[in-house]
Specification:
Number of domains: 2
CATH architecture of the largest domain: 3-Layer(aba) Sandwich
Helix content: 25-40%
Radius of gyration: 24 Å
Largest sheet: 9 strands, mixed
Number of strands: 20
CATH superfamily of the largest domain: Zn peptidases
CATH topology of the largest domain: Aminopeptidase
Bound molecules: ligand BES, manganese (II) ion, zinc ion
């Protein structure tokens, strides 16, 4: 999908289709009036007949039958002008693009970034428009014999102001890179466990590293054990697939600035281990590496965007299998931090591998560490599918991530992490145990992670948000690719490189 730009409006732009964003209560806007006139009043009639209310994401498709330069006209509602947000533009662009794609349109123009609105610059609008279009066109058909051949090849942002051109162009480029990187993460998540193994993830990391000039090193089982990563080793014991510890470094910020370290859970398949899961939805546990995919996607995006920031990505990766030498309930492991961990439930494995990655992060003397993990079903119970759980030990950091979540539409909601929760994970025979009492499971998991952290840290529990079974806006069934846009927005704002 290519993005281009024209200083021309839709009354003269000749193409397959045109996507027109329209606010509630602005039906008599000049461009709509001109179009209505050209169509002999058909637009007004269609709005009435189909009860089109300009609600966010609502679409109205009309064939111009030669009366307008564009063949297919798709009006997409943006809601009230004073309530416009980047996410509404993303969703509007997604809805419009889907209608275009389904009706066989290959190229179309869009007015979604033609002028700034409600405090959003044309650059931000173009970025959101590109993200929505690209993300909604995603399909995962690698294993289908018959591929979806409907494809949008080019989207042209229309504006009548020359002075807008460079900002729109930059915004659309950025949106495309971010969406591509999120779709790269989606592919990794959607790939089944027999293909997307820890070795495969590590090879993907090496590939993006060589393509974008990121420094990459990968540790195998021997190095992992030698370092003293008892958590990662312990979880990997039950599997025939060798574990990997992936390290990516993008140090293109000022030499004096400490890096931000991103950590992602890279559990390529979670059976639960000896504490085995019920089989019903177990197949979805191929998505238990979504945090790791988000980190790889974010590193890819940072490099492709040439972000002037210091960024490290760490992904501990293994399967959680109930093999003959698997860790058993009651076993004690010693993490890289030196903290001893009693494994009372082998299905609480994410915190064990993250413990080592968080401890490893300390080697960089980082500005801060942010981890993303499909960590607990309890987080999904607490927040559903519409927000990730947000924990941490630094209010400012938590607030920055929450704000990035609002801007990107990848919402995060703060959860408590008072020291009293530490009592809930005290072990009788070791420093900590890997499960707490029945209630508050997302919090006790975060409290466990906290034991392995030094310095500023935040944890994003994406168990409810990383994977979806319903098509919704710019999301497709399967991996969401969540965390890529969130982390880039967060990094840009925290380091002050946001443009
Ligand atoms: N990967 C799961 C969490 C999960 C569940 C993610 C559902 C996405 C959807 C994690 O490893 C796990 O199994 N957690 C347990 C922890 C419990 C044993 C304390 C859980 O949430 O049940
Ligand atoms: Mn588990
Ligand atoms: Zn898991």
């Amino acid at each position: 999908m290519k993005f281009s730009i024209k200083t021309q409006m839709m009354d003269t732009f000749k193409t397959d289709g045109v996507l027109v964003g329209a606010f509630q209560g602005e039906a008599s806007r000049d461009d709509l009036k001109t179009m209505d006139k050209a169509l002999g009043g058909h637009l007004t009639r269609a709005i009435r007949a189909r009860h089109f209310e300009f609600k966010p994401g609502q679409t109205l498709a009309i064939d111009s039958l030669g009366r307008f330069p564009a063949g297919k006209i798709v009006i997409v509602g943006l809601g009230k002008r004073t309530e416009l947000s980047a996410d509404k533009v993303r969703k509007a662009s997604a809805a419009g693009t889907s209608v275009m794609k389904n009706s066989g349109v290959k190229k179309f123009g869009t007015t979604l970034a033609s002028e700034s609105a409600n405090g959003l610059t044309v650059g931000e609008l173009a970025q959101a428009s590109a993200e929505g279009a690209y993300l909604s066109s995603y399909t995962f058909d690698s294993y289908k014999s018959k591929k979806d051949d409907k494809r949008i090849s080019e989207i042209t942002h229309l504006t009548d102001k020359k002075s807008n051109v460079s900002a729109i162009d930059k915004g659309a480029r950025k949106g495309k890179i971010l969406a591509e990187s999120a779709c790269f993460a989606r592919d990794l998540i959607n790939m089944p466990g027999n293909m997307a193994t820890p070795t495969f993830l590590a090879n993907q990391a090496k590939q993006i590293a060589s393509r974008y000039g990121i420094k990459c090193s990968v540790l195998g089982p021997k190095a992992i054990e030698k370092l003293g990563m008892g958590g990662l080793c312990g979880v990997a014991r039950g599997s025939h697939e060798p574990a990997r510890f992936i390290i990516l470094e993008w140090m293109k910020g000022p030499k004096t600035k400490k890096p931000i370290v991103l950590v992602g859970k890279g559990l390529t398949f979670d059976t639960g281990g000896i504490s085995i899961k019920p089989s019903g939805d177990m197949h979805e546990m191929k998505s238990d590496m979504s945090g790791g995919a988000a980190v790889l996607g974010a590193m890819r995006a940072a490099a492709a965007l040439k972000l002037k920031a210091n960024l490290v990505g760490l992904v501990p990766s293994t399967e959680n299998m109930p093999g003959g030498s698997a860790t058993k309930p009651g076993d004690v492991l010693t993490g890289l931090s030196g903290v001893t961990m009693e494994v009372l439930n082998t299905d609480a494995e994410g915190r064990l591998i993250l413990a080592d990655a968080l401890a490893y992060a300390g080697r960089y003397k980082p500005d801060c560490v942010v981890d993303m993990a499909t960590l607990t079903g309890a987080c999904m119970v607490a927040l559903g599918h519409r927000a990730s759980g947000l924990f941490g030990n630094d209010e400012k950091l938590i607030d920055q991530i929450r704000k990035a979540g609002e801007r990107t539409g990848e919402r995060c909601w703060p959860m408590p992490l008072w020291e009293e929760y530490d009592e809930d994970i005290k072990s009788d025979i070791a420093d900590v145990k890997n499960i707490g009492p029945r209630w508050g499971g997302a919090i006790t998991a975060a409290a466990f992670l906290k034991k392995h952290v030094k310095g500023k840290w935040a944890h994003v529990d994406i168990a409810g948000t990383a994977y979806t079974n319903s098509e919704n806006g710019y999301l497709k069934k399967g991996g969401v690719g969540l965390g890529v846009r969130l982390m880039i927005d967060f990094v840009e704002h925290r380091t002050g490189v946001y443009k």
